[in-house]
Amino acid sequence: MTGVTANTRFAYAVGDLGINLYFMSAMTFLLIFYTDVFGLSAQVAAWVFLVARVIDAVTDPLMGYLADRTRSRWGKLRPYLLFGPVPLALISLATFTVPDFGDAGKIAWAYVTYILFGIVYTVVTIPYAAMTAVLTDNHHERTKLSTLRMACAFAGGWGVSVGMMPLVGVLGGGAGGWMWTMALFGVAATALLWWTFAGTRERTVAMPAQPISLAEAGRALVTNPPLAVVILVFVLGMLAFTFRQASAPFYFKYNVGREELVSLYFSVTLGVMFLGLVAIPALSARLGKAGAIRVGAVVAMLGGLGFYVTPADNVVMVFVWGALLSLGGAPVAVLGWAMIPDTVEYAQWRTGARADGVIFSTASFFQKMGKALGGWAVAALLAWFGYVANQPQTAESLHGILVLMSICPLLVNVALLGATFLYRLDGKTHEGIVAELRERARA
Questions:
Q1: DSSP per residue over 229-290, as a string?
Q2: d(CA 342, CA 424)
Q3: Residue 432: how many CB atoms within 10 A of its CB?
Q4: What is the longest distance spanned by two Cα atoms in the chain?
Q5: What's the CA gap between 413 and 132, in Å, rounded?
Q6: Distance, CA of 116 to CA of 264 (rounded, Å)
Q7: Helix (H, G, I), strand (E, B) or coil at 171
Q8: Position 1 pLDDT exceeds 50
Q9: Contact 129, 138 (CB under 8 A)
């Protein structure tokens, strides 16, 4: 098993376009929806984010273990892409709905809907992510597959970031506009995920006939140093992404004073990030996956520093430095997912057990913990800096929003740069592992 046809590659990739209609809606706009539309204080929103996202993360290993033990005529991963999209669309709609309740009822609604959204999102996205490992075992083919997948993911993220606010206005504005926008995203995402289900088939190297045991799953995790490094990379990459995405709507509304620029800003910065995908396979082939992520971290650090020293009224340079921040995040977004399936074969080589679902879900768990920490930190720091929704902000609050947009992602990328030097599973090593696994299978 090596190559993947163009049709299969594209059918797999479009699923992440659908997933990112949800991911980017929650990542970029849910906080400002909670504070400025739903009516929660920043303090309450911070705890909703933390609790819901921690629960979301905790369910990932459980889902991975369930996926590894699933056996059906569609495979072990694809059934979740058939039956999961409709419930995911419905709960996302409820999450972006403002109920006619009192304050306590609305807080309860926010907790319940966002927690359920995270659980159903996990049921769909963990099997989807794990499919990279069962579509091909080729080190470089996985880079191509992940690059196209991330191109579709960025396209979905770009569409949400640019189109969310205009769509809310076109569909009636206010709470109703947000609800109908999410209904539209839900229909589109369901169709795209069903396309992935219909256009892919599961293949793998030396798949065990019986589901793995809990002990085997544990060994696949604890005897896997490359996985630990990738998990650290995932956490840091998600932290940096959360800081710059969640704080941008606040920065343009209050620091710049031109909220209408949010869509244009995301159009430019995510567009630059999208164009940067073209160079990632070549960069990875030349420097290795860890080396390519290292280059991205340096670019993002320069962007964060430039952003911090640029006055908010210098809109052109704000866009330039923001574009560098986003461009620097492209390699980790793509290659993190391309590195995870390599660690699946490493674990199989070390332990004899193939644990695609457990390994992907564990990586996703820690990535979501990074998202939980980042989402909580943005909301908590806003409250600490004295942010009050829909009011003129103090100088301290405005400076805090700037720090969230620039210094926080800069510092995270410093840590990310250091983490890349710990990764040892390069292409040559992985090819040797796959060759040995094939010999074992033939024997």
A1: HHHHHHHHHHHHHHHHHHHHHHIIIIISS-TTHHHHHHHHHHHHHHHHGGGHHHHHHHHHHH
A2: 11
A3: 11
A4: 72
A5: 26
A6: 32
A7: coil
A8: no
A9: no
312-353 residue pLDDT tens: 999 999 999 999 999 999 898 888 877 888 888 888 888 887
> Is the confidence at residue 254, as pLDDT, over 70?
yes
Tokens 């290795």 correspond to what residue? Answer: 288
Helix or strand run (H / E) with residue 365: helix 356-384
Q: How far apart, in whole angstroms, are the C-alpha atoms of residue 207 and residue 433?
A: 15
Rg (CA), the chain: 21
Give yes or no for a contact between 77 and 134, defined as CB atoms under 8 angstroms apart: yes
Q: Name the nearest CA neighbour of 266 among 158, 164, 168, 166.
A: 158
Distance from C-alpha of 322 to C-alpha of 266, rounded to nearest angstrom: 9
Taking a C-beta distance cutoff of 8 angstroms, is the pair 76, 68 a contact? yes
Helix extents (H) in 25-102: 30-33, 42-68, 79-83, 85-95
| Residue from 339, 241, 333 nearest 288 by CA | 339
Q: How does residue 413 score in pLDDT terms, banded at 50, 70 and 90?
A: very high
Q: What is the 3-state secondary structure (H, E, C) of 192-208?
A: HHHHHHHHCCCCCCCCC
Dist CA 222 CA 347 (whole Å): 9
**128: nearest Cα among 111, 152, 112:** 152
Report CA dihedral (275, 277, 282, 283) to the nearest 10 degrees. 100
- pLDDT beyond 80 at 138: no
Q: Is 425 helix (H, G, I), strand (E, B) or coil?
A: coil
Cβ contact 25:182 at 8 Å:
yes
Confidence class of residue 206 from pLDDT cuts 50, 70 and 90? very low
- Phi, psi at 188, each rounded to 5°: -65, -45
pLDDT of residue 112: 97
What is the rounded CA–CA span in Å between residue 41 and residue 437?
54
Q: Which residue, among 48, 47, 37, has the nearest Cα to 253 in the 3D structure?
A: 37
| Both tokens assigned to 287 | 């420097």
Of 43, 64, 46, nearest to 54 by C-alpha is: 46
